[in-house]
Amino acid sequence: MDAHAFSDELKRHHLVPLWDVNATLLPKQPKSRMVPYLWRWDAMLPLLKHSGEVVPLSRGAERRVLGFVNPGFPERFGATHTLWGAYQYLLPREVAPAHRHSPGAIRFIVEGNGAFTTVEGDKLIMSRGDLVLTPPWTWHDHGNESDEPMIWFDGLDLPLVNEMEATFYEAFPKDAQPIARPVGDSERRYGLGQLRPTWQRSVGSFSPLLNYKWAATEQALRRLATVDASPHDDVAMEYINPHTGGPLMPTLACFIQLVRAGVRTQAHRHTGSAVYLVFEGRGSSVIDGERFDWRRGDVFVVPSWTWHEHASGDGSEAILFSVHDTPVLQALGLYREQPYTEHGGHQPVERVFSS
Amino acid sequence: MDAHAFSDELKRHHLVPLWDVNATLLPKQPKSRMVPYLWRWDAMLPLLKHSGEVVPLSRGAERRVLGFVNPGFPERFGATHTLWGAYQYLLPREVAPAHRHSPGAIRFIVEGNGAFTTVEGDKLIMSRGDLVLTPPWTWHDHGNESDEPMIWFDGLDLPLVNEMEATFYEAFPKDAQPIARPVGDSERRYGLGQLRPTWQRSVGSFSPLLNYKWAATEQALRRLATVDASPHDDVAMEYINPHTGGPLMPTLACFIQLVRAGVRTQAHRHTGSAVYLVFEGRGSSVIDGERFDWRRGDVFVVPSWTWHEHASGDGSEAILFSVHDTPVLQALGLYREQPYTEHGGHQPVERVFSS
Amino acid sequence: MDAHAFSDELKRHHLVPLWDVNATLLPKQPKSRMVPYLWRWDAMLPLLKHSGEVVPLSRGAERRVLGFVNPGFPERFGATHTLWGAYQYLLPREVAPAHRHSPGAIRFIVEGNGAFTTVEGDKLIMSRGDLVLTPPWTWHDHGNESDEPMIWFDGLDLPLVNEMEATFYEAFPKDAQPIARPVGDSERRYGLGQLRPTWQRSVGSFSPLLNYKWAATEQALRRLATVDASPHDDVAMEYINPHTGGPLMPTLACFIQLVRAGVRTQAHRHTGSAVYLVFEGRGSSVIDGERFDWRRGDVFVVPSWTWHEHASGDGSEAILFSVHDTPVLQALGLYREQPYTEHGGHQPVERVFSS
Amino acid sequence: MDAHAFSDELKRHHLVPLWDVNATLLPKQPKSRMVPYLWRWDAMLPLLKHSGEVVPLSRGAERRVLGFVNPGFPERFGATHTLWGAYQYLLPREVAPAHRHSPGAIRFIVEGNGAFTTVEGDKLIMSRGDLVLTPPWTWHDHGNESDEPMIWFDGLDLPLVNEMEATFYEAFPKDAQPIARPVGDSERRYGLGQLRPTWQRSVGSFSPLLNYKWAATEQALRRLATVDASPHDDVAMEYINPHTGGPLMPTLACFIQLVRAGVRTQAHRHTGSAVYLVFEGRGSSVIDGERFDWRRGDVFVVPSWTWHEHASGDGSEAILFSVHDTPVLQALGLYREQPYTEHGGHQPVERVFSS
User: Fold this and answer.
1) Which residues of B touch D30 (CB under 8 A)?
2) Disulfide check for A208: which of A202, B261, B274, C187 has CB 3.0–4.6 Å away?
3) Partner residue facing A66 (CB), from C10, C69, C162
4) What is the DSSP code (8-state) at residue C59?
5) Which residues of D touch C215 (CB under 8 A)?
């Protein structure tokens, strides 16, 4: 049997010789299939508005959502290999009908006030800057009782759960589920994380607090800013499950991050990917040597094991919200981190992003 | 060898025949050596003031503290078998010198504003209703920078730690330790439990938040009151370590409890003991059939496995602060609880406490 | 802007409208890209032997390994979407040179006695039925000091770790690492899981025991067979980390399973996939209605969310070894299981596998 | 009010001034109320035999047990402040009737073969060297089906549980509970700690394995002796719960310890106490400068925070079994340890124990 025949014979038996694919399967370090990328608010807003005109919500189109598709690997339908990111648009009086799914979701409100998400009978009022959770396999529907369109950022672990072949979906029999509890029930029970009802400790895998209101988030950020900061993220806080100290969900962590005026962070890289949303201000990030200039409403992604650093611009502070798959890497023992040590921790800018 | 001689022989060899002490060592249920008891604010305040006149603080008398001694078992020097409770009195300009010990302590401020406790270089400002922690083996000193005397409640696991033969003590070389951080550092980092610095997760055995300010505590209590309550404790919250969801220390849990106007809770009993402080209002508790009428500043104790229930009085609400040894019972697998089911959950009052 | 133009505009901006891909991204239940499949020992053995003749081990070809490639999704280079399975062949006197990688591996010995694997200086002797671990990022090399070729089964989380973009690889400077400890050090310390050195508790994420010898495994299996069995797996045991009770690695669980003579298990399905190796005996499995007849040395796979059941054949018992990705699903909150309740728990056989 | 009147007034109100008791309540380091002590087998055996003649077992005298009473604090009825130790004596054909209690117990068999303990319907056969568990609140009775008296060592957390005011006791309606499972059920399921039934993971607070047979214990000890040892305990292993890696019970840890021929360990001290049983050989221990010479069957205690070291004697090895309250200290954050560094780690012998 010559080499060619041997190779054919292996293929016929659905076997692969490791020595042929060794370098591909075991690279010295990860090379993401994803690319750093930025989506501009100015480009997306007209498209969202147009979709509001042409796409009515229905059981066939349950959500009016534009998902960010990473150009490096568009078949995955994700902003990164594990994370779905999107903008959702809900018109006054509309209802996005109730359903549930095994992927978990977070919503971060960007425009408008007065819409709501109902999660398992708990009606959560959504205002700019609020972070709302719809944990895995919980019934949820959205409604807009205000007179203005609402826009929020959706973050899901959908690409990961699909990849893990573990996605389940179910539609609720009616468009809106009944409101079974006082409005904002979870906030009233758990809204100050340092105290909890003596008779209630959530032992589930996700946070019992379903709405992290902006006022408290900002207060926490401002207080921390007076005492400490990270060299890589400046004043950055993780939203936590106060009954465990861990991330909001086993697959997702959320950060809020104040880059103070004049600050440029030092670069580092780590396994795991992230989607960033510019909540306030403007500035820039350098990702693997490419500079991305961003302003309010823009969204950008940092793929796994890429160098990245952030800077506020125009002499003002900036606030970034972000979603990370870090808990997955940590749970599986795959988290690894490395600081960038050359050039005082700052990458040389080799390219400037333009779309 | 007759029975008498045998018994002598056993004693001589430091042996005890189990059949002689079986019933004592293995009772059907616990019978606490402690008794329910109440200390009156009106009786204690003059004594505290007098001690302020006659006892100067010094290295020989590091704290001006009057400890509650349970009349059932005074040798233990505890309010219960595991818990030390006391009132501490600090005059304007005084300093209670720095030391550390393996027993952990909490302070709940009853009178005054503007004193401070420094814990490992973090200066904590103390105002009425604040809960301040001095965790095990942390350097701490107290000072009063205001013009009025301060009074606070001290809760410690001292009787337990002594009983476990694990007490260590050390004096700091100077009266006051240096202030090494911005004032209120822990509040600024961890003061809203649902967020934490991304780079910092306390993995120690006690809460990283050292000062639970009254404003937030009250807000949490008022919010919870709008949605839920416990049949045995009414609107009760546990102060938690938001990085674990667990108690403040492995040996101590603290509760704040709103007994709404007109509420009388149902009785239950459990292993573990508690010291209660009346923070606001008046009311009464029935403990093993004895009624204790209480008002602001009074302190009372509930021994292990005694029936107890609480009621607010005069048509107004009351607020109770309490310290519990429950975490010990739970960690050792010894926690057990039983509701009182007769008479609609209320004990017949057989005696009324008077001291 | 008509529908076509809108669609083009979205694509140009790397956005996807969720309403177009909803059904694909959120299926009612998982549909694995993988297919059930079986690889025959009789077909593989000649190919392994041939590879022994034509492929010398070297730094370019560090392992003589034939990997099972699932025909349903061959681009993934895995037996399932998360698991690499393979047969490895090592000739007398050969050394498979030392390296380390972030994916973790297990070896289950199928043919031969007297080879070894060295893991971080601990030389592990490999005999038929032994389970040997080379945990993530540990230096390991293999050698064959016997006069016969060795064949073992390799199980790795490689497809998962690659998919998570977290693969790191490093070659050791020399072919064989130094033996730094007494031979079988981990077995001597931890080989009976119910006792451990008082001064040593492994707090790492993988088992401190690196070699699970067949004699003990079989003894455990035989003992359990006298008292209990699972309806779905018959007499099945998980190899555990005795210092945590958890799986061998965060990404991998290993089972050993005795299907007693005459037993046919009831079907069930669950998220997560598995690779089975027939260690002893013969029998058959039905997977999603297709019957796979197997005998010693055969390997077959069960994809995520497929119905499966096992039966021993010929009136004799069978022993199956298997590798599972279950810990991943459980850590991420994605594990779900369902028993097959029709037809007395047995699937109708609609096809019989032939390759 | 003069000092005397003030003091009286405080007493009358059940208050203690901390400045009076400061030094007592907060010593610089623990001073155990217990003393090191040794009970001789030669003295106890005749007393056990005599009790066999004069004390028939009955519901009034459910166990024929001689408890070790520490002379330092006899009122506690413990070998140490937290641990009950005793010898139990059971004649041929006798039954020690079934009961349960919240304190947990271990039995280590010293003389005889062929008695049994039934725990929750699981009949455990007891032979010399076996360690048998009767966890908290489990029904248990003992019987002797052999022709010889049985003697075993009892270790309980009884003084601790009593001190914690958490002791519950209940008698079983009949003398012997029914045997509900195959004999030795727990050994068959969990007897090799590195494997467990796939469908069964004990999440309780005590070990699911109820009988640690001597053959496996000795094998583990001999294997470990070939590779490692502790400076303070020589070849020492902890019996663990293989489903958690933790101690047998939350309140008790058990060690088996081989002091090799010619070995004298280095002294250290730690919070927490221990009861030692000499299983094989002879030797001596130095505890706070007092030498205790021991031989087979002797029992001795090491109080909290006392220096201790062990040596085998007569040029032969010795084997010690011991019970510790260490898990309590660790759970409560009170464990502290210190090596003795003077004189090459060995204490000067200032006294020799004689009873």
Assistant:
1) 165-168
2) A202
3) C10
4) S
5) none
Strands C290-295 and C351-352: parallel
Do residue D245 and residue C244 have CB atoms under 8 angstroms apart? yes
Please tell me the distance from the alpha carbon of residue A138 to that of residue A119, in angstroms, as a whole number: 6
Looking at the complex, report in whole angstroms how far the Cα of residue D250 sits from the nearest Cα belonging to chain B: 5
| Residue C100 in contact with partner chain A when CB distance is under 8 A | no
Quickly state the pLDDT bin for D123 (edges 50, 70, 90): very high
- CB of C53 within 8 Å of any CB in chain A? no
Contacts of A193 in chain B (CB under 8 A): 192-195, 240, 242
Give A311-351 pLDDT, tens digit per residue: 999 899 999 999 999 999 999 999 999 999 999 999 999 99
Cα angle C107, C111, C112 (rounded to 5 degrees) comes to: 100
- Calculate how close chain A gets to B292, using CA atoms only, in Å: 23
SS3 C170: strand
Cβ(D266)–Cβ(D324) below 8 Å: no
Neighbours of C274 (CB within 10 A): 25
- Chain C CA closest to residue D197: C237
Q: Are residues B141 and B171 in contact, defined by beta-carbon separation less than 8 angstroms?
A: no
ipTM for the complex shown:
0.96
DSSP labels for B255-282?
A: EEEEE-TT-BPPPEEESS-EEEEEEESE
Contacts of A355 in chain C (CB under 8 A): 13
pLDDT tens figures, D292-314 = 999 999 999 999 999 999 999 98
Statement: residue B28 has pLDDT above 90: yes
**H or E element that contains D92:** none
10 Å Cβ neighbour count for B262? 11
| DSSP per-residue string spanning C28-45 | SS---SS--EEE-HHHHH
pLDDT digits (tens, 9 = 90+) for D248-272: 999 999 999 999 999 999 999 999 9
Below-50 pLDDT ranges, chain C: none
| Regions of chain A short of the pLDDT cut 70 | none
Residues 159-188 of chain D with CB under 8 A from chain C are 181-182, 185, 187-188
Q: Name residue B249's beta-bridge partners.
A: B252
* Cross-chain Cβ contact D236/C182 below 8 Å: no
Nearest to C185 among D198, D200, D227 (CB): D227
- Alpha-carbon span B119 to B106, nearest angstrom: 12
Q: Are strands A351-352 and B15-17 parallel, antiparallel or unpaired?
A: unpaired
SS3 label, residue C220: helix
Neighbours of chain B (3+ CB pairs under 8 A): A, D
Rounded Cα distance, A192 and A185, in Å:
13
Shortest CA distance from B253: residue in chain A: A198
Residues 6+ apart with CB under 8 A from A279: A108, A110, A129, A256, A296, A319, A320, A321
Residues B299, B275: Cα–Cα separation, whole Å: 7
With CB atoms and an 8 Å threshold, state whether B242 touches A194. yes
Tokens standing for residue D114: 């062929």
pLDDT tens per residue across span D130-166: 999 999 999 999 999 999 999 999 999 999 999 999 9
- Kindly determine whether residue B238 and residue A196, on different chains, have CB atoms separated by under 8 Å: yes
Q: Per DSSP, what are the bridge partners of residue B142?
A: B96, B117
Q: Does C216 touch chain D (CB under 8 A)?
A: yes
Nearest residue, CB atoms, D198 vs list C195, C217, C236? C236
Band of pLDDT at residue D203, cut at 50, 70 and 90: confident
| pLDDT digit string, tens, across residues B193-219 | 999 999 998 777 899 999 999 999 999
Average pLDDT on B329-345 reads 97
What's phi and psi for C53, nearest 5 deg? -85, -35
Contact B158, B103 (CB under 8 A): yes
